[in-house]
Amino acid sequence: MEQILEIQGLAKQFFLHEQGREIKSCRDISFTLAKGGFIGIVGTSGAGKSTVLRCIYRTYLATQGSVVYDSLSYGKLDLVTADERQIIHLRKVEIGYVSQFLTIMPRTTAKQHVIDGALDAGFSYEESVVKAEEMLRYFRLSETLWDIYPNTFSGGEKLRLNLAHAMVKAPRLLLLDEPTASLDNNTKLLVKELLMKLKKEGTSMVGIFHDLEFMEGLCDQVYNISQGSFQKSREVS
Amino acid sequence: MENPVLKIDHLTVRYGKTCEYCRNGGELDKNTCPHCKTVWACNDVDVSLYEGEILGIVGESGSGKSTLMKSLYFDFDITAGEGYLKNFEDGKSDIFAQSLQQKKYIKNHIMGMVYQNPMLGLRMDYSSAGNIAEKLIAAGHRSYDGMNERVAELLDAVEILQSRKKEPPKNFSGGMQQRVQISKALANNPAILLLDEVTTGLDLSVQAKVLELIRKIRQEFHISIMLVSHDLAVIRMLADRTIVMLDGKIIEQGLTDQILDDPQMPYTQQLVHSLL
User: Fold this and answer.
1) Mean pLDDT in chain B?
2) What pLDDT, on a 0 to 100 scale, did the predictor assign at position A101?
């Protein structure tokens, strides 16, 4: 099967100059993600799960290893060493990142936030409006919320807005950083349903979840990360 | 790989006569030569700015951020270095080596500057419309009606009421003065906008308006922006890439979220860890 992501020997250490300390966050991380596949990562808090995702997204500079992504724009590219301009382009059009936190410009409505995502990806304003409305409907964000500043949204609404913002550009690879951490069961079920729909439509995903039950039927493979080791814990056929 | 719209190589601005010690790369006390007291305000700075991107510049006071911006706008004479603009003679001529007339052309047609202090960018006693018209006239506009129309368009873009266009900026609040400065800087559709601490000293709601305006400008006009700010939240919100300056030098640069979440250099870590 064709791979979209091949991670080999990834390690990340943080060196804190002021304290003169080195913190080892994760090491020896290797896995591959097939096109249209979904890999789940579980592990205790502080085991380095988010570090792995952030190294893929290049928010963190990996200390060792490679993250080879098969991009539409540049072919196979090691995200660890790729040029910053290439990473910016990939983030705009190919790779999405979703967490439970909403980062939004002040005085920006929910709908405008999603429109901005589409504009970044290079769509015209008119196209962006149409796509944004489609996405907001897809992620079932009530129309009454579209023209509101999202600071007052509930956790579930913020997450669905985050997903709409990330998905409006139809990324090929979606990174999910504990998106369901603060959600109630009903909202979790809704998110799971939406993620399954995205998967069926061909989006490749790597996600961190605390809830094993949530991953049932969603992930093709589950990796367990704990101090010093990264192991495949389950494969769903 | 794409070509940058602006490329600065080895930019150096220094004040003082220099001595053999500092000329030969001797260690400075911050940015000052311990022997001859020459100040190296910008020291061998390389910057590339790409089309449609916002490049953030952070660093402590005196690190050379404003010197870099003002040098690019020809407010300071540089000591050494070269600069190339994609929109000026196909990026083949050093902008710092041009005649005064050519530099004026670049300032009026290719670049716009918004200063931290509106007193530097605006004539406080002229009307707001007059301030903008001055920039249009400098770029060769002569039709009164045409200029009036453009002024109205620009004031609308920055949300200044037409009814106040005849008032001088000295009557305006700090946020409104910044918005008049931005409209003046945008008057001739520059390819590059230099924003030096534009949100400093503004209250949160006015700051939000200015940020929204910057985002809108980037989206609508596809301008490349260099943005100096002490406010790391503003940098995180707007900048695609960020450079960190210390003692006149660039010590670190990268994707904005990488610089703020995984800073590598001791000073950058200190800066990020000082965030409230």
Assistant:
1) 93
2) 85
- The string of pLDDT tens digits covering residues B51-69 is 999 999 999 999 999 999 9
Q: What is the ipTM of this complex?
A: 0.91
Q: Specify the number of domains making up chain A.
A: 1
B262 touches chain A (CB under 8 A): yes
Tell me which chain B residues have a C-beta less than 8 angstroms from the C-beta of A103: 236-237
pLDDT tens digits for range A159-189: 889 999 998 988 999 999 988 877 788 888 8
Q: Determine, yes or no, domain membership for A224.
A: yes
How many CB atoms lie under 10 A from the CB of residue B174?
13
Q: What is the CATH number of the domain that holds A104?
A: 3.40.50.300
Instruction: Judge whether A22 lies within some domain.
Output: no
Supply the range of the domain harboring residue A49: 37-58+85-235
Domain boundary assignment for chain B: 51-77+99-273
* A171 lies in some domain: yes
With respect to CATH, is domain B51-77+99-273 assigned 3.40.50.300? yes
pLDDT at B58 (0 to 100) = 96
Of A18, A85, A107, which has the smallest distance from its Cβ to B212's Cβ? A107
0.90 surpassed by pTM: yes
Residues of chain B neighbouring A90 (CB-CB closer than 8 A): none
Residue A11 within any structural domain of the chain: no
Give the span between the Cα atoms of B123 and B145, in whole angstroms: 22
For residue B136, the model assigns a pLDDT of 96
Q: How many residues does chain A have?
A: 237
**Are A16 and B240 in contact (CB < 8 Å)?**
no
DSSP label at B34? T
Q: Concatenated DSSP letters for B38-77?
A: -EEEEEEEEEEE-TT-EEEEEE-TTSSHHHHHHHHTTSS-
